[in-house]
Amino acid sequence: MKNVTRRAFTAGAGAAVAAALTARKGFPFASAGQKLEIQLANEIGTVRPELHGQFAEHLGSCVYGGLWVGRNSPIPNINGYRKDAVEYLKALSIPVLRWPGGCFADDYHWRDGIGPAGKRPRSVNSHWGNYVEDNSFGTHEFVGLCRMIGAEPYLAGNVGSGSPRELRDWVEYCNYAGDSSLANERAANGSKEPFGVKYWGVGNENWGCGGQMSGEEYAEHYRRFATYLRTWNEPRPFLIACGPNRNDAAWTRGFFEGLRRRGPINGFAMHFYSNGTTQATRFTAAQMEQQLSSFAQMERAILEQRQLMNTWDPQGAIGLLVDEWGVWDRMDPAEEKRYGRLFQQITMRDAVAAAMGLNVFQRQADKVIMANIAQMVNVLHSLLLTDGDKCVRTTTYYTYELMKPHRGKKAVKVETGDAWPLGLSVSASKGTQELVVTFANPKPDSGVSVNCALAGGSAAGATARVIHHPDLNACNGFSQPDAVTPKGIEVSAQGSSLRLELPPLSVVTTVVRLA
Ligand code: AHR
Question: Which tens digits make up the pLDDT trace of 239-269?
């Protein structure tokens, strides 16, 4: 369901879809016409940069190999951080990064990851393949990475196998500026300055790998844990409770009933994955359609969950996060063996999926305050894939790059008049001098000839970039790292009219200069 009103279009915008497919002059594909209205005065909320957030877990080769290779690695590195990955991520300006899990978070004990690396314990990563975790990437290394790439750190705490004391101590260790033993220990480990971590997750998927609890049971734990996660210094900890798996209303009801309006809570984090029925580079158009239709379900889940949250939080003070989302295909056993758990190729389909997800969050910008795609490198819907000393930017990376101009702008309503789950996906945002619009066309066999009416604004020109490949399974492989990259595309923007031709299966962002 789109965040548009279902009323008939205003006279100027006309009817929704001109059904006939026509091959247009100069375009090698057939197009269906679609009329839209972008309502510049109809503001939704700010597109917080955090909607473009990321997630990195100790899983497969996300952290080890993907982000951290160690100081003695032959792979070019900056004090152990993988140089090419850092450069690519920095160029994208990652707004926020969630770590260390995932399921790993509820089996992680932060003390294992501080102090001299050689003396850190060797623990077993019981969730992700029982490999031995040497803890060489711990809190200091994570915060160091965030600083290098400009990201706000988001720490996911251990509720499932941890204690309130362990988590409150982690907050003090990271954030206390005074003369406490924990703050002094942090200084001895190399950081006199507090880390100033703002975002704190109180557990992860506590309905599953984080303790198999019911919403009511988790609420009891949450109340205890949250009580001790104090403000030692600015920033005040922003506490994020575990939310539902997809649209699980029973979890949300159980949690908020159990919370009984006690205990500080700032955010409630849903997880929503889009499962695929085959391996990443083997999708048929029908399998892709099935997967991409999950984004309409995700939007419905957000709408229904926010309505439920209003029952206990009528002022809407608690933000909704989607701190894990993305495509999750069938793994190729040979690739998993070589690259680690949950490694999948990223194709043209994934670029469209990423844009459809980001469009949903931007259309719900008055409630969704953060969204973290899973995961940043080498796992699931990733931005980067690495193989030894090779590192490629995936099509997901390029979707984030295309959509970067939305950050910080005001999301505005778009009337598409199309309720079909696989209709054109659109979001728009405006700044003082610019309107940014992203279109994702999920149809593999038809372009879209877009005719937008700008209500409440006037255009004085525009530029546009597209990511498109005729093969839905095309990807930036290690031998063809630039097979699918963005290009410029024609756009016409004058007065109240914005027109452009979207190729089949494509993502286009246009930046319109406002007169
Ligand atoms: O992202 C992979 C896993 O998916 C995470 O560890 C978990 O939180 C979720 O089930």
Answer: 999 999 999 999 999 999 999 877 799 999 9
- At the topology level of CATH, where does 6-46+412-514 sit? Immunoglobulin-like (2.60.40)
Closest CA to 13 of 42, 39, 35, 45: 35
Please give the radius of gyration of the chain, using alpha carbons only, rounded to the nearest integer. Answer: 23
- Measuring CA to CA, how many Å separate 459 from each of 10, 404, 409? 19, 20, 17
Active site residue 205: yes
Mean pLDDT, rounded, for 278-305: 98
Q: What's the average model confidence in pLDDT over 269-296? A: 98
Task: Residue 237: count other Cβ atoms within 10 Å of its Cβ.
Answer: 22
Q: Is 290 exposed, middle or buried (0-12, 13-18, 19+ CB in 10 A)?
A: middle
Q: Which CATH architecture has domain 49-62+97-376?
A: Alpha-Beta Barrel (3.20)
Catalytic residue among 324, 401, 415, 501: 324
Backbone angles phi, psi at 97, to 5 degrees: -130, 125
- How remote is the CA of residue 325 from the centroid of ligand 1, in Å? 9
What's the pLDDT tens digit per position in 328-363? 999 999 999 999 999 999 999 999 999 999 999 999
**Per-residue pLDDT for 23 more than 70?**
no
Q: What's at 409, amino acid-wise?
A: K
**324 among known catalytic residues:** yes
CA dihedral of residues 437, 443, 447, 451 (deg, nearest 10): -40
CB 459 within 8 A of CB 483: no
Which atom in ligand 1 lies closest to the alpha carbon of residue 205?
A: 8
DSSP-assigned states of every residue in 243-298: EEETT-HHHHHHHHHHHTT-S---EEEEEEEEEEEEETT---HHHHHHHHTHHHHH
Is the per-residue pLDDT at 494 higher than 90?
A: yes
Domain parsing of the chain, residue ranges: 6-46+412-514, 49-62+97-376
pLDDT of residue 282: 98
Q: Among 16-30, 54-68, 417-431, where is mean pLDDT lowest?
A: 16-30
Q: How far apart are the first and last CA of the chain?
A: 32
pTM: 0.95
**Ligand 1 atom 5: residue of nearest CA:** 102
Above 70 in pLDDT, residue 2? no
